[in-house]
Amino acid sequence: MAVTVAGPTKKWADGPFPLIKTPFVDGDRKDDYVLAATQMSLVHNVIIRGLNAIYLQAPHVLPADTADFIGYARAWSDFLHIHHAGEEAAFFPTIEQLTGVPGIMDGNIQQHEAFSAGLKAYDEYMGTATPESFSGARLVEIIDSFGQVLGQHLDDEIPTILALAQHRDKMDISKVLEDEAKHSMSKLGFKTTVPYLITALDVTFEEGLHRDFPPAPGLIKAVARALAPRFNKGYWRFAPCAKDGSPKDMLAAPEK
Fold first, then answer.
1. What mean pLDDT is predicted for residues 45-56?
2. What is the CA radius of gyration of the chain?
3. 2/101 Cα distance (integer angstroms)
4. CA nearest to 12, candidates 200, 167, 154
5. What is the Cα–Cα distance from 241 to 210, expressed in whole angstroms?
6. How far apart are CA 147 and CA 161, in angstroms?
7. Residues in Cβ contact with 236 at an 8 Å cutoff, skipping those fewer than 6 apart
8. Residue 157: is its pLDDT beyond 90?
9. What are phi and psi of 255, to 5 degrees?
10. Going by fewer Cβ within 10 Å, which terminus of the chain is more open, N or C?
11. Whole-angstrom distance, CA of residue 104 vs CA of residue 97
């Protein structure tokens, strides 16, 4: 049954950087590579929604809310770094080892490097930003320097995973992705990047097809949704979703 909600009344985090359509919609929903690529799509959309939320709201944050916005923007970067570090430490090397194809994932690593300078500028700016020094216009300018390249990389990685199906006799892609997910999840902070993840997962996306993502015991997810967003709760006012995963108006979002 599709999940339906009234939805946000202001501009929302599905742009300006476009979300990724999952292979699950049109592909073989029983194929392990379609499922793996779909799970990666959903994680990537968590990153894209957060970036869109920051980009849209940065010029409109009120002085009294700036400290919390800075916290949200830092949580986004922390989540992105954990994800890409997990790929480079666990996911890519394992695929190369199992397929026996040297450099098979080098293109993805090169794409990481392509937006690294812009992301470094983002981290340096937000790492030293204070409510008094913060400029929304400057943050938007920095995101403009790498946002499109980052978005393209996140999109390009999905067909790369699908193409690995030609090596299905050599590896269990579900196990490989599960191991990478465990590696990344172990690095998340319960007070920062866990609530960031929770409040950037849209349970209504693609008519609610992925409302049970991520694949974890229901009790664990329920406890995380109930408790994690209580920490630094001012940050998540800028998030695109409520703690139950339903899309909501972001605090400083402009009108449609």
1. 98
2. 18
3. 41
4. 200
5. 15
6. 22
7. 72, 195, 196, 199, 229, 243
8. yes
9. -70, 155
10. N
11. 10
Give 96: exposed, middle or buried? Use CB within 10 Å, 0-12, 13-18, 19+. middle
Q: How far apart are CA 183 and CA 86, in angstroms?
A: 6
Nearest to 45 by CA among 157, 202, 161: 202
For residue 66, report the phi and psi dihedrals to the nearest 5 degrees: -65, -40
* Contact between 205 and 12 (Cβ < 8 Å): no
- Token representation of residue 41: 């799509």
User: d(Cα 138, Cα 144) in Å, to the nearest integer?
Assistant: 10
* Structure-token pair, residue 226: 């109930």
pLDDT at position 87 is 86
User: Cis link prior to 215 (omega < 30° from 0)?
Assistant: no
Instruction: Look at residue 6 in the predicted model and tell me its pLDDT.
Output: 65
Residues 6+ apart with CB under 8 A from 145: 117, 118, 121
Report the predicted TM-score, pTM, of the whole model to 2 decimal places. 0.94
